[in-house]
C-alpha cells in the first residue's frame, strides 16, 4: 500500500520561518493528520473515525490499526455552526459564539435549529462507513473521536452517536 500525501508550500514556508526565527534548524515536518492520530488514538489497534472540527474546515480521518486509510476535508466548521446560530436566533456573532461554548444543548428535542455543517459531516461519515466492510447490522468502527474547537458543543457527541450507531467521544490528546 502507498499513501500519497501533500503539504502546501506556503504552510511549509511558514513553519520554516517560525523555526528559523526561533534560532532552530528544521529537520522534518509531520502532517497534522498523523499527529492527530498519534495523540488521539495512540497505540489502540481498533478502527476509529476522527472528526476534527476546525474553524473553517472539518477533517474526517478513518484509522485502522493506527494507519490512516481515508482522509477527507469538508469546507465547513465551527465558524459555520456559529453563523447558523446567528441566523436562527437573530443574535450577533459574539453572542452566538458564547452560546455555542455554553452548556446549551442545541441537539435536544426542544431545539428547532438545523445545522447544515453537521448534516454535511454526518453525510460524509455515512459515505465513509458505507464503503467499509460491516459485520452484520453494526458498522465495523470501534468509535468516533471528536476533536477541535466545536467538539465540546453540548449534545453533539450524543446526537452523532444516535444518528450513526457508533460510540462517540470527545478526544483528549493528553490522555
Describe this structure in words.
- By secondary structure, the protein is α/β, with parallel strands linked by helices.
- Helices cover 38% and strands 21% of the residues.
- A 5-stranded mixed beta sheet has the order 3-2-1-6-7, with helices on both faces. A two-stranded antiparallel sheet has the order 4-5.
- A hairpin with a 3-residue loop joins strand 1 and strand 2.
- It starts with 8 loop residues before the first helix and ends in a 5-residue tail after the last strand.
Number of strands: 7
Distance between the termini: 31 Å
Given the structure, what is the number of helices? 6
Radius of gyration: 18 Å
Low-confidence stretches: none
Mean of residue pLDDT values: 89
Strand order of the largest sheet: 3-2-1-6-7
Question: What attributes does this structure have?
Answer:
two-stranded antiparallel sheet, single chain, 175 residues, alpha/beta
TL;DR?
The protein has about 180 residues and is an alpha/beta fold.
Question: Mind sketching the topology for me?
Answer:
Elements: H1 9-21, H2 32-40, E1 47-53, E2 57-64, E3 67-75, H3 78-89, H4 93-101, H5 116-130, E4 134-135, E5 138-139, E6 143-148, H6 156-164, E7 168-170
Parallel strand pairs: 1-6, 6-7
Antiparallel strand pairs: 1-2, 2-3, 4-5
Helix pairs in contact: 3-4
Amino acid at each position: 500500500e502507498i499513501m500519497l500525501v501533500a503539504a502546501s508550500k506556503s504552510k511549509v514556508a511558514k513553519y520554516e520561518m517560525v523555526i528559523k526565527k526561533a534560532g532552530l534548524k528544521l529537520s522534518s515536518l509531520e502532517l497534522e493528520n498523523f499527529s492527530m492520530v498519534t495523540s488521539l488514538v495512540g497505540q489502540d489497534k481498533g478502527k476509529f473515525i476522527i472528526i476534527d472540527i476546525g474553524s473553517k474546515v472539518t477533517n474526517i480521518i478513518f484509522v485502522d490499526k493506527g494507519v490512516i486509510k481515508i482522509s477527507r476535508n469538508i469546507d465547513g466548521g465551527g465558524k459555520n455552526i456559529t453563523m447558523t446560530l446567528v441566523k436562527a436566533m437573530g443574535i450577533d456573532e459574539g453572542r452566538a459564539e458564547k452560546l455555542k461554548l455554553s452548556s446549551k444543548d442545541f441537539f435536544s428535542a426542544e431545539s428547532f435549529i438545523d445545522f447544515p455543517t453537521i448534516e454535511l459531516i454526518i453525510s460524509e461519515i455515512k459515505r465513509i462507513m458505507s464503503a467499509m466492510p460491516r459485520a452484520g447490522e453494526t458498522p465495523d468502527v470501534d468509535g468516533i473521536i471528536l476533536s477541535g474547537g466545536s467538539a465540546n458543543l453540548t449534545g453533539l457527541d450524543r446526537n452523532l452517536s444516535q444518528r450513526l450507531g457508533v460510540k462517540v467521544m470527545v478526544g483528549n490528546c493528553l490522555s
